[in-house]
Design goal:
about 25% helix, single chain, 21 strands, about 575 residues, alpha+beta, five-stranded antiparallel beta sheet, elongated
Length: about 575
């Protein structure tokens, strides 16, 4: 020992420095009292554990790669990395007699750090610096390309989050890693490169490296290789995988409009609730300043912009939102706008290819009503369990929703579909798809249902009767009271649904009640990318060192390994 403080037993208070060969240090360790053994074992294993090459990593006769162990301070790093000029007998300090005893020291396996598994505990250069071997505190080990470290560094981008030079990619092959050293208690990796005689340095966050390693590294003993990234993915994917179906007795999550406008944590919770259970009620939105079309939906429009972003723009309509009223003029826009016309349970945007309306906002600008919703996931899972043949048909046979939209003038104003004197700005809509769409894992991804917008059937002769029987079963379940949740919808509140999951029906308006309702949509891409930003900000608040340098410009599948878990 060169230094020992035996009376202060904490994780960092027993400091062991080893300038001599390991076998001599082990001899000295035999003199320790029983009460010091566990802590000494921890220090020994952490000091030496990262310096031992993995089994089978070296060929017979090959030299061991130079390995740097994680230091606690610069002084400790210097001493731990030093190679003694000559081995001498270890010197034992004057320890109290009660602290000394004979016997061998047992070195138990030290549990890996469960709180900070990403910390670097060792690294080594491989193949002359073309690759770097990394070992993390959770026991995983990976070999990564040195040029990947250089190419992926966030310091290659500017303030606009773009790469600063399109020519840097041509210079990568010239870079060789000359040194890679864990720093800051293993929280960072200091890398030193050489290219054409010039020296360069960089510093990378260990948590960032730990997230990327299973995708870009060659796993060594302890490492796990993850499948190559395919597709954009989504941070909401894990929420999607854990959804639970609900029925008529479901609770509808409630949110305060002012809190949603100000709190990113509330916005995260809100967007997660729109994945599961896929419904929410926002209270305190208030009444609009005026009820004319250009003003009726502005409180909704302004609040949605603060939470997520701009509402989808309709192809013709002059506003980002639509307006329905309990008036004879509104009913002339068609059956959708006629509040006296009962509608079957349905999703919106069934005629739009891909169903762009992922989240639907329904703002009660005037009047208080009762309405209803049901869970398309619950319907689909019920059919899967009780009617497997119908489920197979509804998930594989594609049918068509289609219409021609003539609801607006060329100026974007609503028009009567019965008025031949006003010229419409028509556009066609067609969407062919299964009623229940599954993802690659067989989970329900989307339900698309609207009987009034179902187009002309073009199913093959042999499929028609079986499909229509399965579809009839499906439409009956959509109206089954076991699945329909009824709720009060007061003036100045907003119902929000996941339009890929939740079906809704016509609200019941009390006699003599005036009603104005505004509606709008958000695309799935916009919602997912907003959620990505919110989770990045949340992670940075929890760990300030993980700022936008490390959280931007990376695939969702990697980011998912960094950001705080859903619901946190």
């Amino acid at each position: 020992f060169t230094h020992c403080r035996p009376r202060q037993f904490s994780r960092r208070s027993l400091i062991l420095l080893f300038p001599h060969p390991a076998r001599r240090v082990m001899a000295a360790m035999r003199a320790l009292h029983q009460e010091a053994r566990p802590l000494a074992a921890v220090a020994l294993r952490r000091a030496f554990g990262s310096c031992v090459p993995p089994a089978g990593a070296l060929k017979p006769g090959a030299k061991s790669p130079q390995v740097t162990a994680t230091p606690n301070t610069a002084q400790h790093r210097s001493l731990l990395s030093a190679v003694p000029a000559a081995a001498t007998e270890p010197h034992l300090p004057n320890l109290p007699p009660s602290f000394l005893s004979g016997g061998d020291l047992d070195l138990p396996q030290v549990p890996r750090d469960p709180i900070l598994p990403h910390r670097l505990v060792g690294c080594a250069l491989v193949n002359g610096g073309k690759q770097v071997r990394l070992e993390f505190a959770d026991g995983t080990r990976y070999e990564v390309h040195g040029t990947w470290l250089k190419d992926s560094s966030p310091f290659n981008r500017g303030a606009d989050f773009y790469r600063t030079s399109a020519a840097d990619v041509w210079k990568l092959r010239d870079f060789v890693v000359r040194s890679a050293v864990p720093a800051g208690d293993g929280e960072r990796l200091e890398v030193f490169y050489e290219a054409k005689g010039q020296r360069y340095s960089d510093e990378l966050e260990a948590q960032w490296l730990h997230a990327f390693a299973p995708f870009v590294g060659k796993p060594l003993n302890g490492g796990v290789s993850l499948p190559a990234i395919k597709g954009t993915g989504s941070l909401m994917a894990r929420l999607h995988r854990s959804r639970r179906p609900w029925r008529s007795d479901a609770d509808m999550p409630r949110f305060d409009a002012a809190a949603l406008a100000e709190s990113e944590e509330a916005q995260i919770d809100f967007l997660e609730k729109l994945v599961d259970p896929g419904i929410a009620l926002i209270e305190g939105v208030g009444r609009p300043e005026r009820l004319e079309r250009e003003y009726a939906g502005r409180p909704m429009e302004d609040l949605v912009f603060k939470i997520v972003g701009k509402l989808n723009q309709h192809p013709v309509r002059s506003t980002t939102y639509g307006v329905m009223r309990k008036t004879a003029d509104s009913a002339k826009q068609g059956s959708d706008y006629d509040m006296s016309n009962p509608l079957s349970m349905h999703t919106d945007h069934s005629v739009y290819q891909g169903t762009p309306g992922y989240i639907q906002f329904l703002y009660q600008a005037e009047g208080s009503v009762q309405s209803k919703v049901c869970d398309g996931l619950a319907l689909a899972e019920y059919v899967r369990q009780h009617h497997p043949k119908a489920f197979q048909i509804l998930t594989t046979v594609e049918m068509t929703h289609s219409s021609r939209n003539t609801l607006y003038t060329r100026g974007g104003a609503p028009r009567s579909v019965y008025d031949r004197g006003s010229a419409p700005a028509p556009f066609e809509l067609v969407h062919t798809h299964p009623i229940i769409q599954l993802d690659a894992d067989g989970l329900v991804e989307k339900v698309v249902q609207s009987e009034t917008k179902r187009g002309v059937c073009a199913l093959p002769y042999d499929q028609y009767e079986e499909f229509m029987a399965a579809y009839e079963l499906w439409t009956q379940l959509c109206e089954d009271d076991r699945f329909i949740k009824h709720f009060d919808w007061p003036e100045g509140t907003m119902v929000v649904t996941n339009n890929w999951r939740t079906l809704h029906g016509r609200a019941t308006v009390p006699p003599g009640m005036a009603r104005t309702m505004a509606f709008g949509y958000l695309s799935k891409i916009l919602v997912e990318n907003r959620y990505r930003l919110l989770k990045q900000n949340q992670t940075q608040r929890a760990t300030p060192s993980m700022d936008d340098r490390w959280l931007t410009r990376i695939p969702n599948q990697v980011l998912e390994r960094i950001v705080a878990p859903a619901g946190k």
